[in-house]
Specification:
This protein has two domains: 276 residues, CorA soluble domain-like (Beta Polymerase, domain 2), CATH 3.30.460.20; 59 residues, Methane Monooxygenase Hydroxylase, Chain G, domain 1. 52% of the residues lie in helices and 13% in strands. The protein contains eight helices and seven strands, in the order βββααββββαααααα. Strand 5 and strand 6 form a beta hairpin. The radius of gyration is 34 Å and the shape is elongated.
Length: 363
């Protein structure tokens, strides 16, 4: 079975721009991470059971014009590289600079911050790109009364199904408040974690099948790459369980008690995903051990053959050494049949040793 070289994933050990924050005071707004959009754009959705209004590419001032209405508003900021726009939004909605700092730092681990008038959550989205590599985006939520603000690194296709659900007037997204929209977005992101886990499981199956056929360096390289991916998935998923737990236990007035049941379900999914990742990490480590064991077995086979060859030639070399000595009086040297007898003895010894090796199952 021929196994293809696994594409390397995006950089995960460091985020571009991390060194720019060195020496700056807390709350300094510096974008850390890759720039994934051409510009920062602001979109807004306002809805209730009767109406659904969409506004695209609006200005910072326009985001606050309709917030006094009883309708639910969802403000979506796509692209985090424009720190000036993010800072203006922060001042307009009275967001702490440390909160904005976490939003702009795309290497931030999932976390929750709960205040008197808002709830903040940052987490990772996971997906598979066209190169069959695991990709991630950071998304941050700020939940307030009748308002949800989300900050995205890029436009994500995984939310397309949610936009379609918003078109249904009688759906829960339209009949319930921003806390249900908050839950729905988190649930959609976590559901897509399962796609990544399934993809990783398929890769491990391919690797295991290939190991039974022939172990090669390419398989070892792929095993190492999957090990890094699983470690990255663990770092993205494990803190999210804690972050959701804080929300569930906080009794935050912005989250209706009815939505707590749904968030509990999401937390169960996160726990299931985390346990699956741990199982796959053990399986991947087992594949590496299998590869090294197979390599060691092949080396032992080679050493066994070489040892047998050397063992057979030891007595033959001994005989040849004796008759290679330059003594004048050696009876066998003057014997007419000495040469063929010497050959017969040496061949007989070699055959006898081969028979003994075969009998003892050393061959």
């Amino acid at each position: 079975m021929k196994i293809k070289k696994k594409k390397k994933t995006a950089k995960k050990l460091g985020k571009p721009g991390s060194s720019q924050k060195a020496g700056l005071p807390p709350g300094s707004l510096v974008h850390i991470g890759q720039v994934k959009t051409k510009q920062t754009s602001i979109d807004m959705l306002e809805f209730d059971t009767n109406t659904l209004t969409k506004k695209t590419n609006i200005s910072v001032k326009e985001t606050i014009q309709h917030l006094d209405t009883p309708q639910t508003s969802w403000i979506k900021i796509t692209g985090l590289q424009d720190t000036a726009t993010i800072e203006k939004l922060g001042k307009q909605f009275d967001l702490h600079p440390l909160l904005l700092e976490d939003i702009l730092n795309t290497g931030q681990r999932p976390k929750t911050v709960i205040s008197d008038d808002y709830l903040f959550l940052t987490m990772k989205t996971l997906g598979i790109d066209q190169n069959q590599s695991i990709v991630t985006d950071q998304i941050s939520f700020i939940l307030r009364k009748n308002l949800l603000i989300s900050f995205h690194e890029s436009e994500l296709p995984l939310f397309d199904s949610l936009y379609q659900r918003l078109e249904v007037p009688t759906g829960r997204l339209r009949t319930q408040g921003p806390d249900y929209l908050f839950y729905a977005l988190i649930d959609l992101i976590v559901d897509h974690y399962f796609y990544v886990i399934e993809y990783t499981a398929n890769e491990l199956d391919k690797m295991e099948d290939a190991l039974y056929v022939e172990a090669n360096e390419q398989i070892l390289e792929n095993i190492q790459q999957i090990r890094k991916e699983l470690l990255f998935l663990k770092k993205a998923v494990f803190p999210l369980r804690e972050a959701l737990g804080i929300i569930i236990k906080s009794e935050c007035p912005l989250i209706h008690v009815q939505q707590i049941k749904y968030l509990n379900d999401v937390q169960d999914h996160v726990l299931q995903i985390y346990e699956t990742i741990e199982n796959y990490r053990e399986l991947n480590a087992g594949l590496k051990d299998m590869y090294l064991s197979d390599l060691s077995h092949k080396m032992n086979k080679v050493m066994q053959v070489l040892t047998i060859i050397a063992t057979i030639f030891i007595p033959l070399t001994f005989i040849a050494g004796i008759y290679g000595m330059n003594f004048e009086f050696m009876p066998e040297l003057s014997y007419r049949y000495g040469y063929p007898i010497a050959w017969t003895v040496m061949i007989g010894i070699a055959i006898g040793m081969l028979i003994m090796f075969r009998k003892n199952k050393w061959l």
